[in-house]
Specification:
Helix content is 48%, strand content 6%. By secondary structure, it is mainly α. It has a domain of 62 residues: Single Sheet (Rubrerythrin, domain 2), CATH 2.20.28.60. Helix 6 runs antiparallel to helix 17. The N and C termini lie far apart (61 Å). The structure holds s-citryldethia Coenzyme A (SDX). S-citryldethia Coenzyme A binds next to loops.
């Protein structure tokens, strides 16, 4: 941090505020002293607000850059795997071969759920949205480990990370199994993380499940691409919940709740619903017009981003993975893929989208891959949440292991001035 100053003039007042520089990216103006001067900053939606200092992920929205602990997402997607990325996000450095092997083994030994947790699933209707089940079950984990919740204990924070990374695929797959009335399938330690998830999703007790390596690799890439994304809405929710000292399991459940919205992680489900609603390439122009119509609430799901005002680097990798999976499955002529490709081309040539710098985001192609693998639309955000758990936890851990205080934003009050209660 530097000792540079910004000067703010408010009426007759002139206020000097410290300016800090990070490793890379915009400088920040420390406005904490403003409250003593009787003024607040005003930034609904936090468009220009840095809520914290962090060393985990860096995004350059203008240039389509996404770094995890300094490593570009394209290189991680090409050369790493999801569990190695979990280690990197959590610890700040890539593991040695020995550390990586030990980490993979550790995670394998935490994939089962306490058998009592099965009861939580059975409390839901079979047609409950899987995100509702996941939110409830993950929050319930806080009831199973409350005796290991010393937030100042690095060892207890580490085992909590291992439990969450390991158990989320089991919980996600069981949300699916419960919704289709099939028996829960237990994790298998002879499979990789992604193979194991697919076997818990699609395996049945009647026969041995043999994972397709192309689909398992595509699943792992989807996990990598969704793992973390700086201070997005759900991560900021986890940080704010964590700032009160709440159980990390409850904080992760708050992140799941925030991710569910169609403007955030729920967009992958909304993209597929949109492509199905468009139904045919001949209808695309009508929907583009709807997306541009201010009086029409319809938005092009999977397009636009608060930070990326250029391409989303994850969308590029996701588009390539979509082609790999669909050609592996002989589905290159999938009608929804044709609609998606045509929609992307038309939108990227349309002034409305160009002027507003609206590009496909991470959610635009992911749903096509998941659908091709056989995962129902209602499970798409569950998979996003499963992958993002390491991002949420890494940010929670970064905050809790350092100096922090409870988050408490203020407001611009525009309600009634003081008035007396009418006496008869
Ligand atoms: C994720 O933050 C993250 O990092 C999130 C995420 C992560 O990894 O955590 O990247 C994951 O949430 C990706 C985004 C998924 N959401 C969608 O695909 C839903 C569709 N997109 C929009 O809802 C929107 O683009 C947002 C929510 C993503 C961004 O909203 P902003 O930054 O608040 O943008 P805005 O609403 O201010 O839009 C600016 C203009 C507006 O037009 P004008 O008022 O200037 O005329 O662009 C228009 C908007 O109407 N616009 C769109 C549009 N997105 C923005 N118009 C049509 N279709 C769209 N998708």
């Amino acid at each position: 941090m530097t000792d540079r100053k910004a000067t703010l003039s408010v009426g007759e007042q002139s206020i000097e505020l410290p300016v800090y520089s990070g490793t890379v990216g915009p400088d920040v103006i420390d406005v904490r002293g403003l409250v003593q001067q009787g003024v607040f900053t005003y930034d609904p939606g936090f468009v220009s607000t840095a809520a914290c200092e962090s060393a985990i992920t860096y995004i350059d929205g203008a240039n389509g850059v996404l770094l995890h602990r300094g490593y570009p997402i394209e290189q991680l997607a090409e050369h790493s795997d999801y569990l190695e990325l979990c280690y990197l996000l959590l610890n700040g450095e890539l593991p040695s071969a020995e550390e990586n092997k030990k980490f993979h083994e550790t995670i394998k030994n935490h994939t089962m759920l306490h058998d009592q947790m099965r009861n939580f699933f059975h409390g839901f209707r079979r047609d409950a949205h899987p995100m509702a089940i996941m939110c409830g079950v993950v929050g319930a984990l806080s009831a199973f480990y409350h005796d290991q919740m010393d937030l100042k204990s690095e060892e207890q924070r580490e085992i909590t990370a291992h439990r969450l990374i390991a158990k989320m695929p089991t919980i996600a797959a069981w949300c699916y199994k419960y919704s289709i009335g099939q028996p829960f399938v237990y994790p298998r330690n002879d499979l990789s993380y992604s193979e194991n998830f697919l076997q818990m999703m699609f395996g049945v007790p009647c026969e041995e499940y043999k994972p397709n390596p192309v689909l398992a690799k595509a699943m792992d890439k989807i996990f990598i691409l969704h793992a973390d994304h700086e201070q997005n809405a759900s991560t900021s929710t986890v940080r704010l919940a964590g700032s009160t000292g709440a159980s990390p399991y409850a904080c992760i459940a708050s992140g799941i709740a925030a991710l569910w919205g169609p403007a955030h992680g729920g967009a992958n489900e909304a993209v597929l619903d949109m492509l199905n609603e468009i139904g045919d390439v001949d209808n695309i122009e009508t929907y583009i017009a709807k997306a541009k119509d201010k009086d029409d609430p319809f938005r092009l799901m999977g397009f636009g981003h608060r930070v990326y005002k250029n391409f989303d680097p994850r969308a590029k990798v996701m588009a390539e993975t979509a082609h790999e999976v669909l050609s592996e499955l002989g589905m290159e002529d999938d009608p929804l893929l044709k609609i998606a490709q045509r929609l992307e081309k038309i939108a990227l040539e349309d002034d409305y989208f160009i002027e507003r710098k609206l590009y496909p985001n991470v959610d635009f192609y992911s749903g096509l891959i998941l659908k091709a693998i056989g995962i129902p639309t209602s499970m798409f955000t569950v998979i996003f949440a499963m992958s993002r758990t390491i991002g949420w936890y890494s940010h929670w851990n970064e905050m809790v292991s350092g100096d922090y205080r409870i988050g408490r934003p203020r407001q611009l009050y525009t309600g009634s001035p003081k008035r007396d209660y009418p006496t008869k």
